[in-house]
Amino acid sequence: MSKGARIVLLGRQGSGKGTQCVRLSRHYVVPHISTGDMLRAAVRENSLLGRSVVDVLGSGGLVGDEVIIVLVRERLGKADARRRGFLLDGFPRTVAQAEALDDIADGSPLNAVIDLVVPREVVLERLSARRVCRDCGANYHAGPVVPSPWTCDTCGGDVVQREDDTPESINRRLDLYESQTAPLIEYYGASNRLFPVDGVGSPDQVFERLTTVIDSR
Ligand code: ADP
Question: Which atom in ligand 1 lies closest to the alpha carbon of residue 93?
Fold first, then answer.
């Protein structure tokens, strides 16, 4: 890997990190790399990878580190990421993945690891109202009146509720976040690479906070 911005956005499910990543990737013109989107695409394509992860995704568990690390290593090796850098969304999620990322990024260290902080009570409400574009992954918030059919403003794809946004799966994913992903905060904090950003507020306010931190790097 060589030039460009290399940014990792950490944050609980429903912290708004997906939406902010879409916007940040346009703002900084860096590829938005979401492991969740990549895995869901593999499931849609019914590829070997897709078939091997479909059950884990549906139940809200975590895909094995080896599988996900190979996927990310391959993606970060592509020309756009090598040239322009990357904005990682949903990776790393375990300390083993963070160590692998340091290895992959060897020689071009990360510019910033941002922790988008939103309390659990707030994300529970947001997740049950979350809808996503099946094609480009854009996130939407369902109000009291849900358009049917609902098409994406960005690409015209179908806007749907994710199959893993059921209350059981949401709670399981949040528990997993606490146990597996929270240690990352310590991992990056120990090497002074962690920047906590308050994720409660309007999308514009949060975006402004994020760009202020990133620009300072
Ligand atoms: P969320 O953050 O709402 O759980 P994502 O779109 O980031 O959603 O991920 C969806 C699912 O894909 C996760 O629940 C998990 O099963 C799998 N997944 C995504 N990224 C990773 C990762 N880095 N490690 C392991 N599993 C992952």
Answer: 23
